[in-house]
Structures are given as structure tokens and as C-alpha cells.
Amino acid sequence: MATFDELREQAELEIKGQDRSVASDDTNFVAQAADLLAALRLWADAQHRTDDDVREAVEVASGTMLKNIATELREGGGDEALEASRRLEDIAYSPSERLSEIFAFAQTSFPPSSADEPLWEEDQPL
To answer: What is the per-residue burial (b if ≥16 Cβ within 10 Å, else e) of 47-71?
Structure first.
């Protein structure tokens, strides 16, 4: 299992690597989005969940959900889980506009989902 710091570093690289130039004003959002993803991935690993579960959690974008996950992490024990829990709670109690921005940055780390694409072209000639 990767450490929280390793997961955070990986998440930050994923966010910055999405052809998105990060303005100096956005560096704090990137840092918090990386914290968010790292904590969710640590939680997912402890709960035997997948990266799709992490994606779903990011897409839901709920402060209440983050508080619940933070509690699960804290109860799971260990220094890594405790640190991840603390960072999730910091994010969860952010003002709603800031929370939305953090989730938006976190969403950039996931490739576009093909679930919303039609299975075939609608205007296909017969």
C-alpha cells in the first residue's frame, strides 16, 4: 500500500499533467485537490474499493460525504489514515464555492468517462 505522501504526489502530477497550465492563484486548489485524491485513494484501498469508487466520490462532490469518509479513515487507525482524515475534514468544511473548485481540479486527474458516450452514431446511414 502506498503512503499518503506518495498518493498525494501522484495525484498532484496527474492534475498538473492534464494540459492545464496552473496559474499561481490555482496552486492552492491543486494542492487541496491532490490531498483530496490521496485521501480518497487511501480510503478506497483500506475499504477494498476501486479507482472507479474514487472517481464517483469526486463526481458527487459532497462535503457531507467527505466528512463521513474522514470518520472512516480516522477509525481505521494509523498515522497515514489520521493525516488523510484531517486533510479531508479541512476540505469538507470549505465554503461551497471553494469546495466546488477543489472537486473540479480533482476531476481533471481522471480521463473522460466513456459511460456518457453513445454506443453507436445516431445518424448512421442505413
So the answer is: eeeeeeebbebbeebebebbeebbe
Identity (one letter) of the amino acid at 68? N
- Annotated domain spans of the chain: 4-17+26-107
Distance from C-alpha of 78 to C-alpha of 90, rounded to nearest angstrom: 19
Could you report the average pLDDT of every consecutive run of 10 residues in the chain (126 residues)? 91 79 72 95 92 90 91 90 95 93 90 56 55
Decide: pTM greater than 0.70: yes
User: Could you give the CA distance from residue 88 to residue 33 in angstroms, rounded to a whole number?
Assistant: 10
Distance linking the first and last C-alpha atoms of the chain: 52
